[in-house]
Design goal:
about 450 residues; alpha/beta; 7-stranded mixed sheet; 14 helices; about 30% helix; globular
Length: about 450
């Protein structure tokens, strides 16, 4: 029996899910880690693999790891990070963003203060005073890239989902001229070789296979981002139609809709991930991310309180409260206002009313997000799945149903790790077809 393992490095922890050839879950494991401390990534990676049953892990055929988008490291040739990790939400200084704007095309995705390319420039500023007299190479890697390297041992490999915010052109499948011109000025910086997600990078290193109990012929695939893996998990192993959408209700709220055309809008932080589909050809996962989400709720309620208080809310009654629940100043999507102040007043004495207002306000913002994507040219949602911790809140789902004019679908799986496992054993996300076509050009 062959098994397929997906490992999700999300914002709140690490989870591994193994599936069989019928896409059924056969084993799970989980671990905690510190997103800012890359040393804990290695510990957690080995732990979730080692904790799987021997009968499962000794027959794992392929492994795919997803990571948080735009969480990056600058490493030496031994894979050791030479600077503190910059995580997905870290914003680069205005002067760095201004520098990016002189390098990249106007309103390019990389002109965001949280883009991978902006973080690369920020890191290079920090090492500039430590000129590399010995000529050592500097590898710029995303979280999933580095974690994959720990298993297959090939430094400097990425996928075109993670590399999108670095400036990789997912339409032409290459680094654009402006980025190649920039790199020529920094020959010590090695940008990763970019493969299709789920494309085989290599096999697990022999010593790692022995240590973790993996077979020597276990293939390690190029990864994806955590929110993309969550999309794959929700739609499951049946081929999704164009217009299928997924809302990820985690620390933030991420909207993604499967579209027949790519949409990019720097003002709202909207971008499109390429998906090569065996039936439809090249499709695009168009998405935007709001700063509202579960992180705001956890400022005021514990997990237990959220469940208990939610059960006392009547989801069919409209709340009169109008909030914009942010953890800090600034929003990008569906409003573009870096100075937007969190709006959490008035706060009623009754916690049921307060939570009701928060959940309803976020439902309105979600609806506005899908309306904006459609206005900009993305395919209209025909069905909406929900991923993330918020998917378990049935009251919130019923409130959202009043604002979203598309059928709400129950996802059989919402764990991103399941999506990662499914991707490495997918029959309809035909990334290998993409590579064959690419090699013929």
């Amino acid at each position: 029996m062959k098994y397929y393992l997906g490992i999700d490095f999300g914002t709140s922890g690490v989870r591994a899910i193994a599936i069989d050839q019928n896409h059924e879950v056969v084993a799970t494991s989980k671990s905690n880690y510190d997103l800012r401390d890359y040393a804990t990534w290695k510990i957690a990676l080995y732990e979730v693999i080692a904790d799987l049953p021997i009968a499962i892990k000794s027959n794992i055929f392929r492994i795919l790891i997803d990571g948080t988008s735009a969480t990056v490291l600058l490493c030496d040739r031994d894979g050791k990070s030479i600077l503190p990790t910059m995580i997905y939400s870290d914003a680069c200084p205005p002067e760095v963003v201004a520098q990016v704007q002189t390098i990249a095309p106007s309103k390019h995705l990389t002109c965001s203060s949280t883009s991978s390319f902006a973080k690369l420039l920020t890191m290079l500023e920090q090492v500039n005073d430590q000129a590399d007299d010995q000529g050592r190479s500097l590898y710029f890697l995303h979280q999933a890239d580095w974690l994959g390297y720990l298993l297959h041992g090939k430094l400097g490999i990425s996928d075109y989902h993670n590399a999108l915010k670095l400036g990789y052109d997912a339409f032409l499948l290459n680094y654009p001229n402006w980025l190649q011109t920039w790199q020529a000025q920094y020959p010590l910086v090695i940008l990763p070789e970019v493969l299709a997600p789920a494309e085989t990078v290599g096999f697990v290193q022999r010593e790692i296979a022995v240590k973790l109990g993996l077979p020597n012929n276990c293939a390690i695939a190029a990864g994806t981002t955590d929110s993309n893996a969550a999309f794959f998990a929700c739609v499951g192993h049946s081929s999704p139609d164009i217009g299928t959408a997924v809302t990820s209700l985690g620390s933030t709220m991420v909207l993604k809709v499967l579209s027949d055309r790519p949409i990019t809008n720097a003002d709202y932080g909207i971008y499109s991930h390429r998906l090569e589909h065996s039936q439809y050809g090249c499709l695009w996962l168009v998405g935007g991310a709001s700063n509202v989400g579960g992180a705001v709720l956890k400022q005021f309620f514990s997990d237990q309180q959220l469940q208990e208080i939610s059960d006392r809310i009547d989801p069919n009654v409209t709340s009169s409260l109008d909030y914009y629940p942010l953890t800090k100043k600034g929003e990008r999507f569906p409003l573009n206002d870096p100075h937007l102040i969190p709006r959490l007043d008035p706060r009623p004495d009754n916690p049921v009313d307060f939570l009701h207002g928060l959940l309803e306000s976020m439902a309105k913002i979600e609806a506005q997000g899908y309306e904006l994507l459609q206005k900009l040219g993305a395919t209209s949602p025909t069905q909406i799945y929900t991923a993330g911790g918020g998917s378990k809140n049935l009251v919130w789902t019923k409130i959202r149903d009043r604002y979203l004019h598309s059928p709400m679908r129950d996802a059989s799986q919402t764990e991103a790790a399941y999506g990662a496992a499914l991707l490495t054993h997918s029959q309809f996300w035909d990334f290998h077809h993409l590579q064959r076509g690419k090699s013929q050009n």
